[in-house]
Amino acid sequence: MSVGSLRFVVNPPRGALGWWILLPVGGAALAALWWSAVGTELSLSGLINGLPWIADFLGRMLPPNFAFMEKLIKPAVETIQIAIWGTLLGIVLALPVCFFAARNLSPHAAIFHGLRQVLNVMRGINEIILALIFVAAVGLGPFAGVLAIAIHGAGMLGKFFAEAIEEIDEGPLDALRAAGAGTLQRIVFGVLPQVLPAWVGVVLYRFETNIRVSTVLGMVGAGGIGFELISSMKLFAYEDTAACVLMILILVLGADLVSSKLRAMIR
Q1: Are 162 and 197 spatial neighbours (Cβ–Cβ below 8 Å)?
Q2: CA triplet 216, 69, 218: central angle to 5 degrees?
Q3: What does the pLDDT read at residue 51?
Q4: pTM as predicted
Q5: CA–CA separation, 36 vs 39, rounded Å?
Q6: 92 and 153 in contact (C-beta within 8 Å)?
Q7: Cβ contact 54:48 at 8 Å
Q8: What is the pLDDT of residues 49-86, one digit of tens each?
Q9: Residue 241 to residue 233: CA distance in whole angstroms
Q10: pLDDT higher than 50, residue 2
Q11: Residue (of 124, 112, 111) closest to 155 by Cα position
Q12: What are phi and psi of 219, to 5 degrees?
């Protein structure tokens, strides 16, 4: 294209792939989906044949034993306590690690990669497995649940905290560095003001998740309402099971409501 004496030449980007690349990519995606379906034995007919059994199970749960819910108050409170302390200890464990696990703040690449792998291991082990380990270590009870949620949560929070640090604007840090500010001063005045809103949102989401997780940790003896849930199912007291499910829903919905209100206040 030319304008007067000026001439503009637009060249296609080098190495650009044509639309035809979508065919092998789409074929590979379909092959992966088929392979996964075969491996997981996906079967619509199997689900349809199982619907009467699901209906029978749900029918045995109705009506819920509302009188049993009075017995669930203490385990429900214990579940909330597990989630609170699990979240708090997860934050305490994640904070010292996240600054060195962020690429732009880590003093050395080996430290960055090493801490990232530590966080991967911490969040890669399911809370149920961690609860089994801590039940064997500290005995039955909610303390094992707190430790399990704290370790797994620290891995999750540390990853999110570090990624939030990597996305900050480097301008304030450069200005503080030019003014002679030390590392701690750069973190306090240059990093934290930028990441705190994102951190608070992640912590609130993690607390919601911990409420849901702590409701089932009792199944392995780590306290909470999960113990009553699994006990009622083993005794075929399905009306009590329905009461446990209702209490779990109340806890989850309550946690979501409180978290939403806090996020709105922060915004």
Answers
A1: no
A2: 20
A3: 86
A4: 0.77
A5: 5
A6: no
A7: no
A8: 888 888 888 888 888 888 888 888 888 888 889 889 99
A9: 6
A10: no
A11: 124
A12: -65, -25
